[in-house]
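Teaching assistant here, posting this on the class forum so everyone can see the example we discussed in section. The complex has two components, and the goal was to see what a joint structure prediction looks like when all of them are supplied at once.
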Amino acid sequence: MTGGSPAAPAATAPARRARRRLRPGGRLAALPLFLVVGIAFGLPALAMADGAFTVADGGYGLDNVTRSVDGAYRTALLGSIELSALTAAGGTLFGLLLAQAVVSSRGRALREAVLTASGVLANFGGVPLAFAFVATLGNAGVLTTRLGLGEHGWSLYSFWGLALTYLYFLVPLMVLTVAPALDGLRVQWREAARDCGASAWQYWRHVGLPVLLPSLLGGFVLLFGSAFAAYATAAAMVGSSVPLVTLQIADALSGNVLVGQENVALALSLDMVVVAVLVMAVHLPLQRRSTRWLA
Amino acid sequence: MARLGRPLVLLLAGVYFLVPLLASAVFTVDVPGQGLTLSSYTRIFAAPGFSGSLLLSLGLAAATVALVLLITIPAAVAARLSAPRLRPVLEIVCTLPLVVPPVALTAGLGTVLRWGPEKLSTTPLYQTFVAVQNPDFPVVLVLAYAVMALPFVYRALDAGLRSVDVRTLVEAARDCGASWPRALVSALLPNLRGGLLNASFLTLALVLGEFTVASLLGFQPFAVWIVQASGSDARLSVAVSLLSLLLTWVLLLALTTVGNRRRTPRSSRTSEGKTSR
């Protein structure tokens, strides 16, 4: 994926000897990896594509794919996209504010503490996160009962409850993504801008934000992908009361709905892969671009 | 504005990130009608299914770490040493799993597993299909987890390899008469300790928290057990969640500290979200 691997430097005699000696390892050394990926990843991926395009009479067609973007499935797909876009936008904004607050502070201890905590919290997801929020804001949750949130119409098992929960791992993920870029904003640039008579707003508008933009956009799509693929948190928390594509796939797989929906589940999975591929196609180049300022 | 803004942002973040943890702790010890009690925690070990599912998860984690290191180390080292053209291929192969969300991977896996009884029941392969789905130790989960961990493991290893002069090390060991495996194990691997630890910890954390694949394929490791237990005993499951969380965090904190002390590059730290949500 990186354009061309670095050409081997003109090999000196001993190096060439060593290379020859290592040759037997060569490409064969990667064989076990390719084998495992082929069996555990390639085969299921093929099965998914095959099933998604297999129609009732055993031939190939677009029936499943059409059904996967229609009716309740369409609602779920749009629900997932809406939730992911909203939480990614919120995560980007709050992550940027938090990272800026930390980076611009003098205290090194605070900075280290927040970055370390972010590394840990960004890895926090799934079932434990769901239960922590259920214990806090669920029907019998500590805050819900003490503050009487229930009477005010609060429900954790909703779109907004889910969004609030997702931010718990998305904001730290954004802090980790954008902090190096904020570090890359040189103090001299700001001073130079000020010496030329630019206001703080003009500095951000013409220098700060353009430099940050690749990191921010890259972070946004990373967060989007992360929220889009999430299943465990939602499954442990809301069951299937919020329409999400991951929950629909799980339902169809476990036969909770009409029999014969497996292939629609595979088509839905294929839809997810398409979205994820788009996300990666945007994220990877942006990530590469943003590193330009950090050298 | 900045003077007012910074404390406000930090305060809000502190509240948002600490309250759910504190509230969970309160939830487990403050039981209505009983007052303060630690019974949620003392009950854990006696809970039906607890030790079985935990042991299963630990076993799966150990097997996954072993498998994923066993397949990535030779490939990554070979790409560095003797087959530079392998590198871009490896990078693509190891990034691919990120493109398929765990739910979608499970859908595909389930389909493949159904081929066993549907198409292969008369062939010897059928026994293999039965064996990989043995509920006592589902090998199919190890395979799935290895694939899911691959992107993170490869990146951690690659970062580790970048920070040492692989060629000189192996060359020196070979010139001193070490055999090829010996050079790898005694000369190269100790120098990769940081990257290897990093990769192992990430894999361990991923497997211990994994819910999606296991629950949809019908197995019951730790994360699936917690959800099942929550139906009958919410406080118990929150207590277990809190403990497993602390354990994971201690692991990851240890990893970050090790990484900082050894000055491994930033990219090899735990900066990527894992895939267990």
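For the discussion questions: Chain B touches chain A through 102 residues (CB under 8 Å). DSSP finds 13 helices and two strands in chain B. Think about how each of these relates to the inputs above.
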